[in-house]
Hints:
Elements: E1 3-7, H1 11-24, E2 29-33, H2 36-43, E3 50-54, H3 62-72, E4 77-82, H4 87-95, E5 100-103, H5 109-122
Parallel strand pairs: 1-2, 1-3, 3-4, 4-5
Helix pairs in contact: 2-3
Amino acid sequence: MSFILLVEDNAVFRKSLRELLKHRFPQIQIEEASNGEEALKKLETMNAELIFMDIRLPGMNGLETTRKIKAIDPARQVVILTSHDIPEYRAAAFGCGASHFFTKGNTRSDEIANFVKSFLLERGKTTGGHANAPVL
Length: 136
């Protein structure tokens, strides 16, 4: 079984992403955190292989949280989510150890689903369902 952690302070976006992932990949377990501190706490007890991380979080931001996660377990994949597609954010995200970068509002749900499907296939996990193409 695969575990995914969604770290996002916007509850509506977090719910939308969760629903997309559960619809497309019903076999995965999804946990949620609304800030970096909560994410780190959840990762103490769950083995999330893939983490979707908002850059702008209350308290510890997503970049700092990503850096801490990668220091603890470099094998975990962190995907940065942001509303701001600027080169400085991309550079900072990859500099902190993020493996991918998605821009909210410009990324279609099928792009996220295809990324997760590839991630699962690389790890020998099964996939299922289908993706429609609304924008997140």
